TrEMBL record:
CDD domains: PBP2_LTTR_substrate
Organism in which the protein naturally occurs: Paracoccus haematequi
Protein name in the entry: HTH-type transcriptional regulator GltR
Plastid found in the keyword field: no
Keyword ATP-binding: no
Length: 298
């Protein structure tokens, strides 16, 4: 059985579509379809059933997953052995919530690429949990540890959040001396039904029941705060990127959360990915500490 056909099979199984597999592999959907048909001919059974939601594995397809993933691990190990002498090279795709992806990972990726010029780093910013089982990324940063799946979890670092607003908003708005004063102010936060992790439910910390301006993106919320649209809970590490944004009631509203590094359990055997995970963890810890220390000095 051809490994390349198995590689295509896994891509379709993980994306549940020919076009999605094609985008992941850099191939057109018609070629993907022909290769799947060839593989089905080789095994003598249909591997996928077309449904309104996409391509679902048949019973025969589900049985092929384990041997296909074993072949994938073997191919990855062989490729890793070939490039080991050349240092850390090749593609690394990192999934992360958009706060981490926007304010932390660009600097970490810069330093990793400077130290290892052969690396190709892709940052996938998603307002949801990255699905490593479907190989949406090689590893992912999350705001809480998963409780299902064949995954390994490593605590990276704590980070802090505070209520903040732009100084232009604060000059024009009624004074804020206590939590009760917030009820007379415009709040900015997450769209309630799009909060994908309980750790992101910040608004309850303020005692205010609803926000006037909401987004599923941390970056959009920060831009609204920078525009003087109101008050919101923001990451301390993001404030150095937002001139004019100031803490509000820092002694009354102070949150602490954690970042976690998530990897597929099968990747523990990869020396390359383990080294990259260690370097990523070190870089994120250092960058959170650096940016939060800037806020403390102001």
């Amino acid at each position: 059985m051809d490994w390349d056909d198995l590689r295509i099979f896994l891509a379709v199984a993980r994306t549940e579509s020919l076009s999605g597999a094609g985008r992941r592999l850099g191939m057109d959907a018609s070629t993907i379809g022909r290769r799947i048909a060839r593989l089905e001919g080789a095994v003598g059974a249909a591997l996928f059933a077309k449904t309104p939601q996409g391509y679902a594995l048949t019973a025969e397809g589900a049985r092929l997953i384990a041997p296909a993933e074993a072949a994938e691990q073997g191919a990855n190990a062989a490729a890793e052995a070939v490039r080991r002498e050349a240092g850390l090279t090749g593609q690394l795709r990192i999934g992360a919530p958009d706060g981490c992806a926007n304010y932390l990972l660009p600097q970490v990726a810069r330093d990793l690429c400077a130290a290892h010029p052969g690396l190709d780093i892709q940052i996938v910013a998603l307002p949801r949990v990255v699905n490593l089982t479907k190989r949406e990324a090689d590893m992912a940063v999350a705001v809480s540890p998963p409780d299902t799946g064949r995954l390994t979890v490593q605590r990276l670092t704590d980070y802090h959040l505070h209520l903040a607003a732009h100084r232009d908003y604060l000059r024009a708005a009624p004074p804020i001396r206590d939590l009760a004063d917030l009820r007379g102010h415009r709040m900015i936060g997450y769209i309630p039904d799009m909060i994908f992790d309980r750790e992101l439910d910040y608004l309850s910390e303020t005692g205010v029941e609803s926000a006037a301006i909401t987004s599923n993106s941390v970056s959009v919320q920060m831009q609204a705060i920078r525009a003087g649209a109101g008050l919101g809970i923001v990451h301390d590490f993001a404030i150095p990127f937002a001139p004019g944004v100031e803490l509000v009631l820092p002694d009354r509203i102070a949150l602490r959360r954690s970042f976690w590094l998530i990897r597929h359990a099968d990747d523990r055997a990869s020396r390359r990915l383990s080294l990259l995970a260690d370097l990523l963890a070190q870089g994120l810890r250092a960058e959170v500490a650096r940016l939060e220390s800037q806020l403390r000095r102001t």
